[in-house]
Amino acid sequence: MKRIGIESMKQLEAFYESAPKPAGFIERKTEIPSHTLNLYGAPKTGKTWLVLDYLSKIPKKKFLYVDMRDLRVEKSSLAAQIGTFVKSNEIETLVIDHYDGSFDIPECRQTILVTESAYKKNRMMPLLELQPLDFEEYLAFQRRQINLEHSFSYYLRTGSLPSMAATPESIITIRLHENIRSIFRSDNETLLFKFISRYQGKPLTIHQIYTGLKKGHKVSKDRLYRTVKSYEERRIVSWLPKYGQPKAAKRLLIYEFAMAASMHFEKSLMGQLYKIAAAKLQKKCRELFYTDKIDFLDAESKSAFIISPFANQQSSAAKISRLADEIDSFGISDITVLTIANSFEFMFEKTEVKAVPFYEWTLQD
Predict the structure, then answer these.
(1) Where does 2-129 sit in CATH, by number?
(2) Distances from the Cα of 302 to the Cαs of 162, 289, 290, 352, 354, in angstroms?
(3) Closest CA to 176 of 195, 191, 194, 157
(4) If you ran DSSP here, which 8-state letter would residue 290 be given?
(5) pLDDT, tens only, 92-116
(6) Strands (E), the chain
(7) How far apart are alpha carbons 168 and 154 in whole angstroms?
(8) So where are the chain's domains?
(9) pLDDT band at 22 (very low <50, low <70, confident <90, very high)
(10) Are 197 and 261 in contact (CB under 8 A)?
């Protein structure tokens, strides 16, 4: 037991003396406050880099950063000694990266748990989610001086993970697939991800996933449900409900649109654009839904959003006229048509219709 205590103290001393540095850190919109919290979010969204930047502003002897995925760590012995180490060294800020809940959190003035799934054991602990790069953040990471339209096109190809923003075009797919292999823990999980990636932005049920997969593969329904649940907890997938129909199929949202697109030779522009739009709208709309004819309905403001990449005014007018019943039924006050490059405005009866290019709209407040 004494030997174990010595070894665990050596591990903690090593972390204490040599915390990693966030070299080349680029500021994010999410900031870490000066109180205890759980920083969580989907894989490879930059959680570690964000917390290391926060620690770089604190005196070295006042914090301890521990990475539980460090291959040198003996978890059980470290867990047994970390409380004593924090107290004896008068640590004020403790960061446990890749915390898995397998040991109790020691007392400290400020504790930051870094996880993929939200830590629910302590329901009093504040949560802070870090999401992938939005387009505005991506421009800061991109390190290229090109116009907005071209930058948005590159955003579609590289995706929204910080590590991908400066990737050379010739190896984008290689890097995306490396990320996929590191995120998914088995061949079965990768197979599931490949299957659902075809449904980005489309209504989908777990039963449809099950019946689709079992046509060519041996699938356990219970295991499938557990895996999808783990994807939800890890923020890899989320769902957009249908307005007024809580039991209807929800639209699938995969957190990283370029990874999903890279799983197939034929690309789904609509799926990628749908996820980008959903990410922006979910930040500001408390009641966001889809309907039979409308991609996004903000039920609170009565605003509607339609994705139509190559729309012009004439085609949009025809499309809006086919929405007349839903416009009346939902009392829609304005409609935004999201295009690749076109801009125009017109009135449909009493409803304002405005077309905006994605690369402009994503930068609007």
Answers:
(1) 3.40.50
(2) 34, 11, 12, 12, 15
(3) 157
(4) B
(5) 999 999 999 999 999 999 999 999 9
(6) 37-40, 63-67, 93-97, 110-115, 127-129, 203-204, 237-240, 250-254, 288-289, 296-298, 303-307, 334-339, 344-348, 351-357
(7) 10
(8) 2-129, 133-273, 285-365
(9) confident
(10) yes
Measured CA distances, 104 to 56, 83, 110, 346 (Å): 26, 9, 15, 60
Supply the DSSP symbol for 107. P
For residues 358-362, average pLDDT: 96
CB 276 within 8 A of CB 362: yes
For the chain, state the CA radius of gyration: 23
Query: Rounded to a whole number, what is the distance in angstroms from the first to the last CA of the chain?
Result: 58
Spatial separation of the C-alpha atoms in residues 98 and 114, rounded to whole Å: 6
Structure tokens at 306: 């339609």
For residue 338, how many other CB atoms are within 10 A of its CB? Answer: 24
| Beta-strand pair 334-339/303-307 | parallel
Q: How is residue 94 annotated by DSSP?
A: E
Q: Residue 96: helix, strand or coil by DSSP?
A: strand
| β-strands 334-339, 351-357 pairing | parallel
pTM over 0.85: yes
CATH 1.10.10 corresponds to the domain 133-273: yes
List, for residues 218-259, the tens digit of each pLDDT value: 999 999 999 999 999 999 999 999 999 999 999 999 999 999
CA distance 202 to 250: 8
